[in-house]
């Protein structure tokens, strides 16, 4: 958009976050060089808004995919040099910078590398701009040498080898053939080529410990030895083997804690403050998201119950309400697949996007909240200021990489310094009646639509168990304990607001049950079966979110799988009851939604004297608190400590391979367990007895003591595009 016609939806790029991210990455990679990948308009963040911040963080190597991108980076560097004046001059710090900025380098001091080209790509412009070329084929190497002959500028190439990803790169046989061909070049031909680097790309580094990564590293090192021996054998005519730049680690390879090696790392996603891991957040890695998408409310109107929203009228208001129209749609990069699931933040509160996301706009149900025309709308934030890229990825069935990279060109980018300010009411809860996407669900805590308490709700509140879980480690411990109680034929109905951690709990449960296959959000497959590895039960994982009612749920025909598996149904309340007696488990995000979110899901957490409340603490999980000693609660009461938790939960959690597809933030949750039906009367007591074994438990019917905030124990610990 032009300066005279700015876009309503704007991408706010936090320059300080970018600078701090690369400083954190530089500290992580040690003596290796750090190449930041700025392809796809800097992963949607905007080259002009991103590159200066990276240079201030000390980055001197930039990667791009295409020649056009590389040339754009080169032009930007020249413009920056011209704007600053003297090469190497120190740029003035941005507002809010707490330390002096790094010296901006001269354009010629920044390496630019690109690697995606074909037989029609003229490489001469790259050589004239001193841009290095990644070559994946012998034909590409020949074209680079030919362009060098025409320009008089030697081509500096990085040979890319395929070590297992199956995309671009020389196979072992092709690589040997290339070196044999180069050995036959004349001295004149050799003058046109300098082999300055060797590169590959890792396929599964975001899964720490995956043997495929070690296999790729071993293959890369074999090619490196072959290339080094070759360069030595030709007397350095085609490159200096001692100066060879080797790079194979992407963001997960650089941050995953494994020995990847190389003289340089090539990071993309982590540059922008996003995590490449499914079970580790950006904060876990010392990173901060750099992009926020902020729009405005265009109109607010009152609509009666039953009024539809957007194309297809897939949503109808369950009660009289107010619709806010917000600028931004799929032409701007917002995924249409998130329709009916997405949320936005207005005045510090989350509200649901209802109906289908259109090309340019979307409808938000704001109820009776004080939302007005012109209010700022945070469409994408860091998870607290607004929905995170990970949340949008979950809603759309994709990954955080795509969410930021797809932000379109008509969205203006603007540089800011520092995160979005958190509104004073940032912890206000979503109005329960407005959060509901399906109008056939109850809209109030424990009551039917006509205001009378339903029989099912009455049964649900019988003898509930309430747990305060401080972090992901606590959730893993809870899942392990739950798995010890569950058996084949059991049904678990999971309820909770978006991002509460339903899928995360299911993943930990699948790990504890030791089932086959990766447990992830079913979303588009509705139901997925995970057979048991051993003699225990399997897992049937169901996402009922897109189902319109109990009839569609029954049409899934899950009865046949019940006898041999534990069946977990996300969003199943009001539908999965047809499967009979079950555990209804409600997960509430206290940190993100505030104290009132006990009402968010329609049944609500019990009162303090209505059930058993306990907390899983890091010390109890690990057994670090000696038996007989005490620790204090937030209320000051001392409680006996012990190691009963490990015994009750069946010991070690095992390898942590569960991704965090929802609720990735390591924040406190409240989990409310409601045994439903006579079959759980006896076993429900066993479940409560298991929880009582933890020393922080209070007896049923006794006042529950306030639980302290407990953090996970400290663990020692590229990109996918």
Automatic annotation (TrEMBL):
Associated pathway: Amino-acid biosynthesis; D-alanine biosynthesis; D-alanine from L-alanine: step 1/1
Enzyme class: isomerase
Superkingdom in the source lineage: Bacteria
Catalytic activity: L-alanine = D-alanine
Xref: InterPro entries: Ala_racemase (IPR000821), Ala_racemase/Decarboxylase_C (IPR009006), Ala_racemase_C (IPR011079), Ala_racemase_N (IPR001608), Ala_racemase_pyridoxalP-BS (IPR020622), P-loop_NTPase (IPR027417), PLP-binding_barrel (IPR029066), T6A_TsaE (IPR003442)
Residues reported to bind substrate: 167, 359
Residues annotated with N6-(pyridoxal phosphate)lysine modification: 39
The keyword Cell cycle belongs to this UniProt entry's keyword annotation: no
Domain Alanine racemase C-terminal as annotated: residue spans: 290-416
Cofactor: pyridoxal 5'-phosphate
Pfam families per record: Ala_racemase_C, Ala_racemase_N, TsaE
This protein's UniProt keywords: Isomerase, Pyridoxal phosphate
Keyword RNA-binding assigned: no
Residue positions of the active site: 39, 311
Residue span of region Disordered: 620-671, 694-721
Family of the protein in this entry: Belongs to the alanine racemase family.
Function: Required for the formation of a threonylcarbamoyl group on adenosine at position 37 (t(6)A37) in tRNAs that read codons beginning with adenine. Is involved in the transfer of the threonylcarbamoyl moiety of threonylcarbamoyl-AMP (TC-AMP) to the N6 group of A37, together with TsaD and TsaB. TsaE seems to play an indirect role in the t(6)A biosynthesis pathway, possibly in regulating the core enzymatic function of TsaD.
UniProt cross-references to PANTHER family, sorted A to Z: ALANINE RACEMASE (PTHR30511), ALANINE RACEMASE, CATABOLIC-RELATED (PTHR30511:SF0)
Protein's recorded name: Alanine racemase
